[in-house]
Amino acid sequence: MAGRGAKIRFWLSLGVAMLAAPLAFAQTAPNAAMPEACRVPGSVFVTDVKLVHSADRVVAEKRLTIVAIGSSSTMGMGASSAEAAWPARLEADLRRRLPGLQIDVVNRARPRETADQMAKRLRKDVLSLKPDLVVWETGTADAVRSIDIDQFGTTLEDGIAAIAAAKADTMLVTPQYARDTVRLIGFQPYIDAMNQAGLRRDVLVFPRYETMRHWIESGQMKLENVPREDMTKVADLLYDCLGRQIARVVLRAMHLPKDFPSAPPR
Amino acid sequence: MSAPAKGRDQRLDFFRGLGLLFIFINHIPDNAFSFLTLANFLFCDAAEIFVFLSGYAAALVFGRRARADGTAYAMANVLARVWTLYVAHIFLFVIYTAQVAWTAQNFDNPLFIEEMQIAAFLDRPHVAIVQALLLAHQPLFMNILPLYIALLLGFALVLPLIPRFGRYLLVLSAAVYVGVPIFDWNLPGYPDGGWFFNPFAWQFLFALGIFCGWRSAVDGEPVGVPKWVFWAAAIFLAATVPVRTWITVGYYFDSVPIAFAEAIYQFADKTNEGPLRLLSILALCAVVVWRVPRDAAWLNLRWARAITRCGTNSLAIFCLGIFLSVLGHAALVEYGASIANQAVVTAAGCFILLALAKLFSWYKAQGKPRRGEG
What is the mean pLDDT of residues B68-89? Predict the structure, then answer.
């Protein structure tokens, strides 16, 4: 049969049902130490992939280099400053939680790029920095332009392979959720393709879509009908929470030795 | 030749009506009640029901017309129907465009600047509208009517050949279906990719519907199916329903091995109507035909007749269903998507569809008698 496409559409067919799941099966929050607005149910993250290269670097050399590649929301569009974008917040939170380590998060996002456009500059813009972890936020521009879904999946898997060949881990980050956009844009097939690529290549997928869906639908965060003067504040909060959640997942997925010095989230 | 069964098989419109209600429910994004629809228990969904039964209904209506009034007139009839569908599709496209324009104006949040690129086509309407007129631009949830249009157009073209070469056409149709995954046939989409419902693949299911419909409603000699086929269909369903349900439910508990799910879904591709989906819908139809007699008493109960009327007015109900799913989602955005609100929206939408179907049927009955839609 139609190979890749068929496999990806497996997730697509589960799509609608999947969306309701994180809320319906909410378990106890493993992130109780987080600011209230940032919390998510434990079931939002269901993977136990290990960030091998990152963990090795942290344990052996006490340092960690992360490069974020993505589009407008990774650039920090709408935030008060570049320091408020989620990669910078990720860096701040990781530094706080792993005191004494040399931690750098480099932001290499560009607006409106498809996965393919990002993959094309992966070597030059990202891998040249010798990262231990590449956080790859993508899917939005692809969904907006309805890029061929099989092609999208192939691009992701080739990109992940290139990153692995450069001895770095990959974490994919899915598109954003907003009630107003899901009616117009078919995100689900692209999110499914990202989950699929993650499963096939054994890499982490950070479910930003489900996470934001929880934040919005639970009323923890208000992203719609925000007065213009409050928008920056809202953006800063969102990116801060994202940075914290990604930091949490990164820390958990490194499976550091129990006696490794670390601070709780705050 | 025995005389064809008179009238219209009520089961046809009942199950088509049910499929249309499912389509409405499924088209509200993130609607928890989609859990209750076919797709979570079977490897096929309402799209298959709609396509197969529409093929059957097309043969019934236009095949009989060809018998009664001549092939040329019947062909013209199908083309008129295609035109109606085309206009309906463009109407839905206008609704979609209005949604995008509305959202772009009111959803002025820099956080979602990337997502609002969807409104970029408003900057280049000359391209987007032409692509929509060519059926290449099929925005979210707007891909079933283009398929139906393509299928009926094909039906119009082969209509004169069906009485004589029906079997050969079915073989040709099967050959095209088999050729799709090998040669990657599809029609081009806009701005990228191909049609979500690949007409070269889905035509086979439609052709099977036409074949069955023509044999029973036009020739009056329904396709003879040996008893064991019904048993095989029942066993197939009994085997696949638990698997599909397990995949749906097991997903949340992370209990379905990915290799197993992948292996299964090799054969359940929706775009190319994978064989597992095809077998599922055929098995479902076989079991329904077997277990639900044509004159089943419950088909005449009030609730069943209400659903049947949705099937008789399929095009209007389909379009209204899409339109109501837009409104329903807007309501959920406005008042919150709690389970209670989703229940209210889903129930209200279904009620409105059933009520409007009744209105349409009443309206039609006031005019001269009609034989229903193809």
Answer: 96
